[in-house]
Design brief:
Order of helices and strands: HHHEEHHEHEEHEHHHH
Radius of gyration: 22 Å
Helix content: 40-55%
Shape: globular
Mean pLDDT: 77
Number of domains: 2
Distance between the termini: 34 Å
Strand content: 5-15%
Low-confidence stretches: 18-40, 258-263
Largest sheet: 4 strands, antiparallel
Length: 263
């Protein structure tokens, strides 16, 4: 488990490094990391990522190139592509899931609550949860959740004044908490930028930062519904944090790429 966690910490960094280095052969990448004293640390992580089918080799020997698989790309992004989510089309209708569950069945309620949160539904009121996306059996697996069809009702609606889309969003998700988590991401990005500009940075510093940054980023996007852009509330920090994070990883990867080109 510890090796898997370490491998996951490298994902975002490798994602940018593999994109930016021209013809990224395994030998070149490993030699570059060895300049930072990584030869005994990175190789096991690459093997771990290959076994998990997060990255794959295209070709053999010196001509082989590393690339991310589809699932690997999502893993590198923290499990979801936020840009794709923000840019998705919205038809203007809200989906309201209304549940009628026995009050005594606490385990069922808890299981359903966890599933709804994992699917980025918002809690509108009482037993009413909300999503801007279509809901079908693939998004609401009744058998898996051990729910009877008669206990669930799905409604499509639009708010009527004085309610609005903005009020639905404000009532259903805690964007104060979401922004605080993104502020943590921005703080970590500032630390990463200092690291990228520090030519004497030590390998241990980068490893610690990678672990802290990934933990912070995953915590932020896990609790964010990643709504379509038109529904995002004023002051939302998700897109700013994403852009800053990209800039930092790009700077770190360019530093790595510059070292590789000199070899």
């Amino acid at each position: 488990m510890q090796d898997t966690a370490k491998s996951q910490d490298w994902l975002a960094f490798l994602f940018y490094a593999l994109d930016l280095i021209i013809s990224p052969t395994p030998k070149k990448i490993l030699q570059t990391f060895e300049e930072w004293d990584y030869q005994n640390r990175l190789r096991p992580q690459l093997k771990q990522l290959e076994r998990a089918r997060i990255i794959e080799r295209d070709g053999q020997g010196r001509s082989a190139a590393l690339r991310f698989t589809g699932p690997g790309r999502l893993a590198a992004l923290g499990g979801v592509d936020p840009v794709q989510r923000w840019q998705r089309w919205w038809d203007g209708r809200w989906r309201l899931l209304v549940f009628d569950l026995p009050a005594r069945d606490r385990p069922l309620r808890l299981r359903l609550w966890r599933w709804l949160r994992s699917q980025r539904f918002g809690y509108l009121q009482n037993s009413v949860w909300i999503s801007p996306d279509p809901v079908d059996e693939s998004r609401c697996p009744l058998n898996h959740l051990k729910l009877k069809p008669e206990t669930v009702t799905v409604l499509e609606s639009r708010p009527v004044p004085p309610d609005s889309d903005a009020s639905f969003v404000a009532c259903s998700w805690d964007f104060g908490l979401i922004n605080r988590r993104y502020q943590d991401v921005l703080t970590q990005a500032d630390c990463g930028l200092e690291l990228a500009l520090n030519a004497s940075a030590k390998p241990a510093q980068l490893r610690r930062w990678l672990a802290a940054e990934r933990q912070t980023w995953v915590a932020a996007i896990t609790g964010d519904p990643l709504l379509p852009a038109g529904l995002l509330p004023p002051g939302y920090l998700g897109q700013k944090a994403w852009q800053r994070r990209q800039a930092v990883f790009t700077s770190l990867a360019q530093q790595l790429g510059g070292m590789a080109q000199k070899m």
